[in-house]
Amino acid sequence: MLKIVTASKAGFCFGVREAVKTAARRAGANNCYLLGNIVHNKTVVDGLAEKGLKIIESVDELPALKEGERGSVIIRAHGADKATYERIVEKGYGVVDATCPFVVKIHDVVRKHYADGFHIVIIGSANHPEVIATNGWCDNTATVIDCADDLAQLEAYDKLCFVCQTTFDGKKFRELSKKISKIQAKTVEIFDTICYTTYERQKEAVSLAAECDAILVVGDKTSSNSTGLFELCKAENPETYFIHTLGELKKIKFPRSGVVGIVAGASTPTESIMEVRTYMGQEFGEVKNEEFINAVNNETTTDYREGRAVKGTVLSANADGIRLNIGGKNDGFIDKTEVCEEGEYKPEEFPVGTEIDAIIVKKRDDVSGCVLLSKRRADLMRKTDEAVDQIRNGEMFEMVVKKDVKGGLTGSLGSYRVFVPASHIRLKFVPDLKKYVGKTLRLRAIDIDDIKHKIVASQRVILQEEKDELDKKAEIFWENVKPDVVVAGEVKRISSYGAFVSVDGIDCLAHIDHLSYSKISSPDEVLEVGKTYEFLVLKADREKQRVSLGYRELQPHPFDKCMEKHPVGTITQGKVISVLPYGAFVEIEPGVEGLVHVSEAAASYVKDINEVLHVGDEVSVKILAYDDQHRKTTLSIRACIDEDKTAVKPSKPAKKVVEESDVYSEKSDNNVFASLLKNVGEGNDGEDKKD
């Protein structure tokens, strides 16, 4: 017996499902047209056409509207170029945009970067409608490539922006990205715009192909993503078959035992997959996939579980409440207290045949035999479900985790149960899911099942986007932050040795020695946390992820102010800050010191400068010279003393009568020549006496 295994990611992706729903809701409406096939699947397209949806291939096919008429045009999941939107509006039609949210993001990237002067490069198939539409958002100037050989033609551009078709081969894109990074252009930006579900689908398909004896790829052969899955599986398993109809399936000769895997592209409807699985189960073995059995059961039986939403038709309404037909063997009943959230219940407002949405409160009432319902709760839930409508296009939402289950976390959004797979909680493996219970996650929906009211969501995609954005900013940062470049940064925190500054999200350090020219004890004497200042880049080491900044280097140097305030020859006050054998350093302005050489420390010869000057002394000094190049100042204390002596000239003293004995003062005792002269004088006196 064959075992049949179906990929969990088979069938419509989020974007296709929403586009098909949009088209189905409007099928048969007056003057409503679908521009091109909603998806690359003939079964889906034919089904919509049978419902009355009119399909056109060009805006030119739109008929002219009569005065007072309204019309609308549905843009398919692949999107359309800017000119198409404009032409639709010019013809008087409204636009119903069913473009996949992931494709819309690509258009936003292309539009922005094209406006910023980038040459756009689209990685994908040139003939694919998504690629054609994307090219239209840069005036059809993009270069479309699908292999490394095409990169040579891009060397002439200085600024390149790469985006990728959402269904492109993920492995091939990664290989291309490595070679793109080596392009010698001034600026190269690469955006991984492959739909995340495409990655998951391709990964699971390859894994199944490696494990199964044969693989069935269900899808339309005009579909790019289905063809891509077939090629990936075929490379892994030669027994891979591409089928679109049961007729093709019946031609394949399967063994009577083994494992057959079923995968399907993003444009393949669930009905096609179920048709294949049913046939395989009937012909070769029992299909045991739990999710498939549940899907079949939900289609064929009525589920009366409490909390489930149901739609019923009024059979009768009286003072006690409303009785409804809910499609099963038991009727439903809404007690009068469960009819209105606000206001008074009035039976006459609910005539027979009125449709009512309700929530099952109890599976069966023992007295009446009815399923007990609540319209009030359904109305309240409908309001909360508006939040779900707001996240259909990829908007972020928050959810408090209620429970950890096998494989992930659960919570709710309105009436929808939200499941976050363990692999989608963070970028790295999560060993303990329990610690997330009660915490709030930031999520983006990757799949919404309106029938089962289930949402599969991911926090990892948000974290990855934020990481990619930080990596992009970091790349720009390291390309531009070099020594001697002035940057603006916000002071985040202060330590004893410096300030940590955020420059474009990158942490840098401004050491305390580079904050002020004067001595400070703490960085907060100069900088304030939370404020933004300009800094000079002193060092930038990308390998060690370190950047040193200087603040004082951008401030006026105290030396320059000092030169203006105290020109050469000026006498000012100063404070001795250090004493060395050859002189003393005196601070004459904050941050400006000058040297008083030992020979200029006093009026007379000084053998040891410590005898006349001490740290902390307040002294008068005269500016002798400035060395502007080396920012040095020469000072003199002696010059101040000399000026004090000459400032007031004393009156001329009376002439002193010098006695002979006065010629030989105490100072002359130290003079050798004075002693000799003294002896000479004595000898002459003797000779005179003899005469």
What does this structure look like?
It is a single chain. With about 700 residues, this protein is α/β, with parallel strands linked by helices. It is about 30% helix and about 30% strand. The chain contains 16 helices and 33 strands. Strands 18-22-23-21-20-19 form a 6-stranded mixed sheet. Strands 13-14-15-17-16 form a 5-stranded mixed β-barrel. It has a 5-stranded mixed β-barrel with strand order 24-25-26-28-27. Strand 20 (about 410-415) and strand 21 form a beta hairpin. The longest helix is centred in the last third of the chain and has 21 residues, at about 460-480. Mean pLDDT is about 80; it is low at about 285-300 and about 645-690.
> Average pLDDT value?
82
- Note the overall shape: elongated
How would a textbook summarize the main sheet?
Answer: 6 strands, mixed
The main sheet orders its strands as 18-22-23-21-20-19
- Please count the helical segments: 16
Helix content: 25-40%
Runs in which pLDDT lies below 50 for 5 or more consecutive residues are 286-301, 647-691
Number of strands: 33
The fraction of residues in strands falls at 25-35%
Radius of gyration: 45 Å
Separation of the first and last Cα atoms: 164 Å
Structural class by SSE content: alpha/beta
